[in-house]
Amino acid sequence: MSLRVHLPGLELKNPVMPASGCFSFGKEYAQFYDLDTLGAVIMKAATKEPRLGNKTPRVAETSSGMLNAIGLQNPGVDKIINGEMPFLNGYALPKIANIAGSSPEEYTETAKKMSPHVQALELNISCPNVKEGGIQFGTDPHLASNVVRQVKKVSEVPVYVKLSPNVTDIREMAVACEQAGADGLSMINTITGMQILKERRRPLLHNQTGGLSGPAIKPVAIRMIYEVYPYVSIPIIGMGGIGSAEDVLEFLLAGASAVAVGTANFHNPFVMPEIIADLPGVLRNYGFSSVEEAIGGAHY
Ligand code: ORO
């Protein structure tokens, strides 16, 4: 049973990786298992300058999901390269850097610094939790095309664009990114949501709104990947509520070539090695002899 997947810049021994922001830079999870078990790692978003993120409370549990409004907290691209990456470089697995910014220049400067140290970039144009940057690029096809084009000019490695589900027609965004030169897509980022604290009659999160993730958004992610798949010829890394090998197969059938696991890591730190161990059996049960055979299988 082959779990291998070949994507631009990425030779994956299996299709499972942590979603950006849910794995920090790997140190915490390395206490639980060998990170080289994973197909790849996607790091927490990097920005040009350090960011402290939003005020607390910035995480809340919901039915079948989680709301977050972290606000792109990170130590800045230089500290990530010099302080965080040496640890990850002790592992052979491919590294993907998620990069964010408030302007095309901020994206390009971060991309220029980061790209020599990783196998691919994931361009975050979909963070729902910062006022400037992020989602404004991810909800307007012209702004998205411009930032993708600029980053492609400076990046030494393939660029995957992380799309926002907070749009009317995600196909339009996907096609705009492909035409601007994107090498792949990551979908989906979180869906904007809110929780009200009844005692205080106020939104629970200090930021008021947050990004909803976890099993609650899985059908939305599947629907969007299924919609985009016939419209693009670049690969899709799928994410949104994955918690089992059965979920992974559903994403592959919808059109994802690889997957990222996010929220599930918080309640079960072993979830990714467990999924990787279960995947061959699940593929076999549904009549597949490799991961690649299952990709897009729901479309034929
Ligand atoms: N939260 C998300 O849900 N998605 C992002 O891309 C970034 C954040 C955050 O840092 O708040």
UniProtKB/TrEMBL annotation:
Pfam families: DHO_dh. It is found in: Cytoplasm. Its cofactor is FMN. The active site is at residue 127. Pathway: Pyrimidine metabolism; UMP biosynthesis via de novo pathway; orotate from (S)-dihydroorotate (NAD(+) route): step 1/1. InterPro entries: Aldolase_TIM, DHO_dehydrogenase, DHOD_1B, Dihydroorotate_DH_1, Dihydroorotate_DH_1_2, Dihydroorotate_DH_cat, Dihydroorotate_DH_CS, Dihydroorotate_DH_I. Substrate binds at residues 44, 68-72, 124, 189-190. Keywords: Cytoplasm, Flavoprotein, FMN, NAD, Oxidoreductase, Pyrimidine biosynthesis. Its main location: cytoplasm. Binds 1 FMN per subunit. Its EC number is 1.3.-.-. It catalyses: (S)-dihydroorotate + A = orotate + AH2; (S)-dihydroorotate + NAD(+) = orotate + NADH + H(+). Residues 3-282 form the Dihydroorotate dehydrogenase catalytic domain. FMN binds at residues 20, 44-45, 98, 124, 162, 188, 214, 240-241, 262-263. Catalyzes the conversion of dihydroorotate to orotate with NAD(+) as electron acceptor. NCBIfam families: PRK07259.1, pyrD_sub1_fam. Heterotetramer of 2 PyrK and 2 PyrD type B subunits. Belongs to the dihydroorotate dehydrogenase family. Type 1 subfamily. PANTHER family: DIHYDROOROTATE DEHYDROGENASE (FUMARATE), DIHYDROOROTATE DEHYDROGENASE (QUINONE), MITOCHONDRIAL-RELATED. This is Dihydroorotate dehydrogenase. The gene is pyrD.
